[in-house]
């Protein structure tokens, strides 16, 4: 039986980075979640969901996005949640963890000086917590396993 994988990314660079590592789950049952409907055509290899684009600055949109993500996690019942961030990835990781999924956070390549705020917040919920910059890796995490440049 194929592993069910939920792949989550905000728009822009977060989405591009997620797609750059897509061969890693080529033989799995996958579903994508993002904030842009226009990205649907880029992922014909899996199910596609769009959630409200939200940040910590807009609490109502954030609550709506979390509710939408909860419905997706309940529907998909993923074995693994993988995200490159940001807000939708945080929600997916926490919800996925509550429902028993293994979780992977891959911090954005743009965060050269330090882990992103979202990346720092998910530390306790990520089974695998990754940075794309070797100098940011620590014994206690995040780990460096390469970059998607």
UniProtKB/TrEMBL annotation:
Q: Which Pfam families match?
A: Alg14
Q: Which UniProt keywords apply?
A: Endoplasmic reticulum, Membrane, Transferase, Transmembrane, Transmembrane helix
One molecular function GO term is: transferase activity
Q: Its topology with respect to the membrane?
A: Single-pass membrane protein
Its localization reads: Endoplasmic reticulum membrane
Domain of life of the source = Bacteria
InterPro entries with a match to the protein in the record:
Oligosacch_biosynth_Alg14
This one is known as: Glycosyl transferase
Which organism was this protein described from? Answer: Roseateles violae
For this protein's source organism, the top of the classification is: Bacteria, Pseudomonadati, Pseudomonadota, Betaproteobacteria, Burkholderiales
């Amino acid at each position: 039986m194929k592993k069910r994988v939920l792949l989550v990314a905000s728009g822009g660079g977060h989405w591009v980075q997620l797609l750059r590592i897509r061969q890693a789950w080529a033989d799995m049952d996958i579903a994508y979640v993002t904030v842009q409907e226009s990205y649907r055509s880029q992922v014909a290899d899996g199910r596609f969901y769009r959630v409200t684009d939200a940040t910590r600055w807009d609490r109502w949109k954030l609550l709506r996005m979390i509710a939408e993500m909860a419905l997706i996690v309940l529907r998909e019942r993923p074995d693994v949640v993988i995200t490159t961030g940001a807000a939708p990835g945080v929600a997916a990781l926490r919800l996925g963890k509550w429902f028993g999924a293994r979780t992977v956070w891959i911090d954005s390549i743009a965060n050269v000086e330090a882990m992103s705020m979202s990346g720092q917040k998910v530390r306790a919920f990520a089974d695998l917590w990754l940075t794309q910059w070797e100098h940011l890796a620590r014994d206690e995490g995040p780990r460096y396993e390469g970059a998607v440049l």
